Amino acid sequence: MTETVGTGQFHTGSAGRDRPPQDSGTVGLRLERVHTTPGVHPYEEVAWEQRDVVMTNWRDGTVNFEQRGVEFPESWSVNATNIVTSKYFRGAVGTPAREHSLRQLIDRVVRTYVVAGTRHGYFGSDEDAEIFEHELTWMLLHQVFSFNSPVWFNVGTASRQQVSACFILSVDDTMESILNWYREEGLIFKGGSGAGLNLSRIRSSRELLSSGGTASGPVSFMRGADASAGTIKSGGATRRAAKMVVLDVDHPDVEEFVRTKAGEEKKIRVLRDAGFDMDLSGADISSVQYQNANNSVRVSDEFMRAVENGTEFGLRARLGGEVIDHTDAKTLFRTISQAAWECADPGMQYDDTINDWHTCPESGRITASNPCSEYMHLDNSSCNLASLNLMKFLAADGTFDAVRFARTVEFVITAMDISICFADFPTEAIGDTTRSFRQLGIGYANLGALLMATGHAYDSDGGRALAAGITSLMTGVSYRRSAELAAAVGPYEGYVRNSEAHRRVMRKHAAANDAIRTSYQNDARVRDLATTEWQRCLEIGALHGWRNAQASVLAPTGTIGFMMDCDTTGIEPDFSLVKFKKLVGGGSMQIVNQTVPRALSSLGYQDEQVEAIVDYVARHGHVVGAPGLRPEHQEVFDCAVGERSIAPMGHVRMMAAVQPFLSGAISKTVNMPESATVEDVEEIYFQGWKGGLKALAIYRDNCKVGQPLSTGGKEQSSATPAAQPVVEYRPVRKRLPKKRPSQTVSFTVGGAEGYLHAGSYPDDGLGEIFVKLGKQGSTLAGVMDAFSMSISVGLQYGIPLEFYVSKFSNLRFEPAGMTDDPDVRIATSVLDYLFRRLALDYLSYDKRAQLGIFTAGERAAQVEADYGGGQDNVDLEALRTGVHSAGRPAADEGTEDTGRPAQSTAELVDLQLGKAADAPLCMTCGTKMRPAGSCYACEGCGSTSGCS
């Protein structure tokens, strides 16, 4: 029997699970080309070039990795080349066995999939197998999608063919099970992956053992697992162990669990104040417990309603299930939120929502998640991931190409299912569950860039409608293809037992799709195609079932996001409007994200306006005050951090918009400002439940002691005398002499005239200022005199001038506008001009470079020094929109070197904000990492702080 569905045909036959076609009689899929041309191999359609990859640690200049003469397409960035070469090429460096071309890497993986797909009956003919190979190769070659890292590490090599990055374990209330948990977790950590589990089956410390003693409780066993994770990490892993620990809200020990990390955070503060090194990865941080896991409380609808109504909630014994104590729900909810406010843990997982979308409830409840909270399914299971680069589907007319996106999803989900046929797993139980339920995790990256490029604000109805439509289309096509695969090679083994529940969840997805309210024609087209795909999914699934119990998640996409040259990871908004770009000939520069000019064009701005706005962004890092930008368009350029950052609830609203169209959940941390209150945390967690999220975590800026940037080594003796004299340090005022050098500068800002008098110490250094504005009243004159006096006294007490510059530059108030100063052409206020002028006159070049302040001559010298020599590898587009971040004009060669250039986009943003944001330094190359979902990723070498 042959049926035509979607873009191609499929043939049905007897459903033998994972057996070659000669045994099962299956015929397989009929495929059609999307991106490739018959008779032309994808490799023949791109220009290739040889590159040298040399990666260093900026802290000490040592070479971390070196491989010369690698082959990549010209279109791939230097950053993607470095990461793929160092992370994914196999074989010993310097030997003939070492991979040296992207062709070898792609062929190693793709051909393994083609061989397995052919053997297990996925393809209708040799021609279909060739189409599959060419399409997969083309998409990987052009950075349309990527498998998760374990695929690139292991597939096609002599090592075990592990393809999954996400694992869920289980532990029962026996010592044998607890010790086995330690063992299984250790094996997974050793392989560089992470795992999560729920400890709620373990008896609480308020219950008795069969021997008559009192149980230890799950928190005590967490200590051993935490120490194991820390030991394995320090034994040679390149990142922290990725680990999730979950406890149900009705467990009698839940309050102790909630306070574990908050209590340790207080201990860290005490030890830090006593002189111990408690920074991230510091020498003494390992003595603190519970630092190697993410903690989450699994809350029920019953508990959340009790919070809403202000009633009591029962805590239940683990063995009998009877209520052994009552607690005030609001008080417990406040305790959870207070702990999260103090140290970012615990997060929330919403149990009833999770299990209401469970396709296999007859096989067991969903009790836990992987470390990043996007994969949620049965205990002792795993999920292999792949993510699509959404920007690759942005058409020339500024619309999203939904049809090509849908056809691409067909190939990717097929490949992901094939991988389960040959994959190895860390434990027998995980392998059995995964082969029986075939959980997949297709997702995407670059959503934030896509929304900006199409003129949508991240926190807007239009942005959420487009995101929801794309997510619905992705999952709808995935399950439709899964139903086709079930017709060709059989449904998953657990389907028959769970068929009614699986069909119910499919109907819930389809109903949620119908509820999407579109705002624009493009959004409507995506939603309409998704509606068609869900209808076909239901029709085919009713006949043949589905091949996969789960299909989609939204993962962090850290390393693979850099591999695909994505501006944004997962569901995240743009991190900032400027980025740190490495150049082909070495060096780096700060450029404006190319999404910005695309967004401006889609909003209707002319080329001259786009150029002016982009130039402004290159100098300021934001669009506030950009010439010609209409106020209603500023929200389109809101980012995760910076001058205009997205409100925390904006992130929650975006998560709620796409959650109904995901089999799993979303890896994302909602960042909150340092000024956020405990009540704000409560509101986020409560609205997450109301919005139908499955999981949610927050991070309040500076809530942890460990800081990402070090100010220098600590000098401390190893032995401290029993009694030390108490020394009280006070600031000392350094007064100016009677005669001192000074200068007076006249200025005009927005038509307002004034004078700046600046006095210096004889040995250099600003010591006082006086400001007079023309035609001012006595009140304003008095305010300016008082302001000048306070700044002068602060300078004499040792407050650095650069501190004042970072605080007062970019302040906005009238008068503002054009100036008569060739070095500062536009000022957002009088104070903005004054402190930029003072910085130019009194700060070294390096300090000003960190603040983004240059003279007109220095800017010209930068361009001449770096690009005036006629190099062949000049990045003209980056030159047009960027400002070099590390160059130094010859005129300032004698200036003292007091700083260092930024090494990553995260550090560039820190310089713009004038503060160091909370993010760890990469343990491989020392570069400051940036957020990727609920993890961190290094754009220098691709390392991640969690599961990839």
From TrEMBL:
Domain Ribonucleotide reductase large subunit C-terminal: 164-699
Reactions catalysed according to its record: a 2'-deoxyribonucleoside 5'-diphosphate + [thioredoxin]-disulfide + H2O = a ribonucleoside 5'-diphosphate + [thioredoxin]-dithiol
Cofactor(s) of this protein: adenosylcob(III)alamin
EC number: 1.17.4.1
TSCPD domain sequence ranges: 737-841
Biased composition (Polar residues): 1-12
SUPFAM superfamilies, per the entry: PFL-like glycyl radical enzymes
Keyword Zinc applies: no
Region named Disordered: 1-27
UniProt keywords, alphabetically: Cobalamin, Cobalt, Disulfide bond, DNA synthesis, Nucleotide-binding, Oxidoreductase
Residues in Ribonucleotide reductase class II vitamin B12-dependent N-terminal domain copies: 53-143
InterPro entries linked to this entry: RdRp_reductase_class-2, RNR_2_N, RNR_lg_C, RNR_NrdJ/NrdZ, TSCPD_dom
GO biological process: DNA biosynthetic process
MF (Gene Ontology): cobalamin binding; cobalt ion binding; nucleotide binding; ribonucleoside-diphosphate reductase activity, thioredoxin disulfide as acceptor
Short name of any one Pfam family annotated for the protein: Ribonuc_red_2_N
NCBIfam families for the chain: NrdJ_Z, PRK06556.1
Functional summary from the UniProt entry: Catalyzes the reduction of ribonucleotides to deoxyribonucleotides. May function to provide a pool of deoxyribonucleotide precursors for DNA repair during oxygen limitation and/or for immediate growth after restoration of oxygen.
Family to which the UniProt record says this protein belongs: Belongs to the ribonucleoside diphosphate reductase class-2 family.
Name of the protein this chain belongs to: Vitamin B12-dependent ribonucleotide reductase
Organism, as annotated: Amycolatopsis antarctica
